[in-house]
Amino acid sequence: ILDHSGFETAVFDWARRRPVALGSQGETLEFVGGQWRLAAVPYLLSASRVVMAYDPSGRRSLAVERTLTGTLAMSAYDGIAWTPVVTPTTPPPRIEFVLEFDIARARLILFSGSDNLTSMLTDTWSFDGTNWTQLTPAISPPGRRAASSTYDLVRASIVMFGGQGSSNWLGDTWEWDGSNWSPVITPTAPSPRWHA
After folding, report:
1. Sign of the torsion formed by the C-alpha atoms of 40, 31, 45 and 99
2. Which residue in 87, 128, 125, 89 sits closest to 105, CA to CA?
């Protein structure tokens, strides 16, 4: 068992068939052979409030975080090394945003987050492997931080649940279809929560 200070975020590396995690001190960890192992290469940035998603088309783990200088930066990990991903355009800095890879459209999607823990952003951004583009969906969910998300292979959509709004925890479900957000109404739902 590794002596580390806790995980900041993790993804599953489908190409190498293992979870990859970032420790709160910048450690890169991989779950191999039934145990967590420290990778030889540390993460490039602070690993504070970093969010990760896996890019199956690029066979790499992507990490996005607000840096100590207040900008939003991205790095890619291919199992060998972390590499900075420099883009002409970047979304405004934020923390605890939704970051999910849209497999059907080969785009990394970033939504919402907080710019100062109380002000919630409501923008949606798409990364095509080269640059970020702000999208203009007709409908957007209320701003939030620390929501949960996953990709639905059957419906080819990103599903998002909950999070913390500007004044309360949220218990709503939304779906991203590549061009728009839609609320998902279900007969039953979990209670409002964040960091689910």
Report:
1. positive
2. 128
**Under 8 Å between Cβ of 63 and 75:** yes
Question: Would you tell me how many other CB atoms lie within 10 Å of the CB of residue 110?
Answer: 26
**Average pLDDT of the residues in 111-138:** 94
d(CA 188, CA 160): 16
DSSP 20-79: EEEETTS-EEEEETTEEEE-SS--SS--SS-EEEEETTTTEEEEEEE-TTS-EEEEEE-S
46 Cβ neighbours under 8 A, 6+ residues apart: 26, 65, 67, 68
pTM of the model: 0.93
Q: Measured between alpha carbons, how far is 3 from 192 in angstroms, rounded to an integer?
A: 33
- Per the listing, tokens 């940035």 go with 45
pLDDT, residue 47, reads 60
pLDDT digits (tens, 9 = 90+) for 46-85: 666 899 999 999 999 999 998 877 889 999 999 999 999 9
Which two three-digit tokens encode residue 128?
């095509």
Six token digits for residue 108: 């990394």
- Please determine, for residue 5, whether its predicted confidence score (pLDDT) is greater than 70: no
